[in-house]
Task: structure prediction
Amino acid sequence: MSSFQVSKYSISRIADVMTRKDGGCAKCLASDLDKMNFDAVTARYGEEEMDNRCSGFKYVAGTTEEEPWSEAFAAQVVKGFDCYLYQCSEGDVYKRELFKRVERVRDEMRALFDRKDPDWGSSFEDAYDKAQWE
Result:
């Protein structure tokens, strides 16, 4: 399995979604999410390899401003969560409370969209398949 650092935009969007739901500081959460992703990539490739790849993370505000959410945007958000969780599954990172919290929010979102809103016209799974792996 390979592992990479998820884009700052994707991490910021995950933080935005999570803080909309649970409250808190999106910028602070995004920094914690980036650190967890960095730790997972370090577990995969080793500290020596990662020393030259300090993330220098900067939060991107307004990543979930699209209201109401379109089917494509909602699918992209869920796929972003999936990508993030996959990239953080190295070492023992998946045992962390923050990882479990991200998983829980992703699962709750997926459950909502699995109902296939008839106003969207096509299935959530079709939109998910077209979404980008970030």
Remarks:
- The mean pLDDT is 82.
